[in-house]
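Sat 14:20. Reprocessing the chain from the morning session after the first attempt stalled halfway. Input below, unchanged.
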Amino acid sequence: MRKSLLILIALLAMCGSSIAQAPLYDLIESSHWSDFNEGPYETNTFFGAIITINGEIVTYDYDHWQYLELAAFDDNEVCRGHDGLWDDGEQYPMALFSVFHMDNELGLSISFKLYDHFNGIDYGYGTLNIPCLTGEDNFDVYDWDEETTPVISFVSSSVSTTQTIVLSDGWNWFSTSIEGSDDVFGQLKDGVAALNTSSTTSPMIKSLDDGYLTLSNGSWSGSLASLQNEQMYLIKSNGGSVTLTGDPANPTNHPITLIPGWNWIGFVSQNDMTVATALSQITTPNVGDIIKNIDDGFLTYSNGWNGNLSNMVSGKGYLYLNKGNDPITFTYPSSSKEVVDYTPLPKYWNANHNAFPTTLCVMVTLDENEFGMREGSHEIGAFVNGECRGSARLQNVDGRYVAFLSVSGDEGEKVNFQLYDVNSDSMFGTAAEYINYTADAVIGSLSNPMTLHFRNTGLESFLNTLSLYPNPAKDKLTINGEALLTVKIYNALGQMVLVEDCNNNSNVELNMGGLSAGVYTVAVESVFGTANKLVVKE
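Finished this time. Tokens:
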């Protein structure tokens, strides 16, 4: 009876009917064996087996069984079939798939490999308790018990895996999903030291509570003595990648405790996942809780997570603000790889967040009497002395338009705000409001965002004081104006023929000697907006 039922299930699968398959291909981008092509093969054998790893049968209690992928290979190591395990409701998850072969290859010897997508472990070839799988153009499903079903045994001498950490030039928020042993800590220090190619950069590894290390003359010094998976670390280095090898950390063995206030937390998972999934074991986040990353934005909680941080990413570190009065303890899911296929909106301004070790969070909106707001209709940028320190576009959150703005900087800096209208491709002057930078500050909220007012008085003043001379010009053109950013010159065909960075200066001299005689448009961009002027070149 059981065999007949399995045959029926398999037949339904072959016909495309929906049965309870492990969600392997919903959770990974592609098979580990991407070279498989069923196109050349005319016949197939349907095959089922029990899997053992290090002598233990893979059951539904086996951690991450949903991420195991089995593949069949011929003697030339050509992949002839692969699939994840299937949930048939019986005692064991099924290794169940078609092995493809040609008509003239009946009797083909087949071997099997196993790959763990969750831990990144390739177990290589396994041992089958029958001599080989001989290809027959039939449909075989074995009785699902330990005595009559084929068993493929895999042995792992080590469960080690690797994690490659990509570090930006400057400051990075780092954590690891490799078990934090002394050896792994040494690999991290050696890797960061190897990236030190600049005499002006002083590499550093810093924790919130356990001290820090600095690199000088090839040697590390300081009080930081170990690496904890539950923690985030600040790493200052030249850009590059560091590879760590060791045992994969099991998230259930590394609970995270969030005390009231800001917490530096690690992401203890080998796999990226959505923030909502990663934090799903926090059953009742506090209104106003925040999670942020140095360069991907932040989310705040109010009837769900809202903001512009999409996924939690392996290798990155995070800050979590617990707005409550009591600690919260949670663990990351041990078997989820749900990831949003998220493509950030293009930005008019871009900031180098890695130039600074800290950020602050601002939730801002616009005066609805001045602007008709829609999803993504306006981008708000934060600037210090003309340098962009962060920008974000408006989002519709329950009918309220809010920009979630991560701002980088140094303590006490004055931060001004500028506005870009996406639809009209126009800029507005500096907002009447400003803030003073304070690390990890939170300004505004979902229910009461900071409202910015742009009435273009700054742009009007800039236009009134802007001067270009001489006009007509022969060789030199002088431009006077407040807080100049760039000057671009366009010919009569609209082609840009000259560009000059002004670095927030008030006086710029352009050399027009190489341009042909004619009428040119000079676009002068300042922190207050952009002005276009016509200039005649003699």
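The CA atoms of residues 11 and 44 lie 13 Å apart.
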